[in-house]
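Lecture notes, unit on protein representations.

Consider one protein chain, 69 amino acids long.
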Amino acid sequence: MKLSARNQVKGTITRIAKGATTSHVSIDTGGTVLMASITNEAVADLKLEIGKQAYAVIKASDVMVGTDD
């Protein structure tokens, strides 16, 4: 698989929380857990399951940064 997105992080699926139409998929990337909201259809098409290796691909036009100061 080749993508133009440069932010690709490999990890392990640790949780899939299915809703009526959307699932929240958690991917542990080695101590940091990223969560994506995707359709239930995408979960089925990708055959996602807990313990499976997957990539979090991040493509965003804006990234917000905050501090506690």
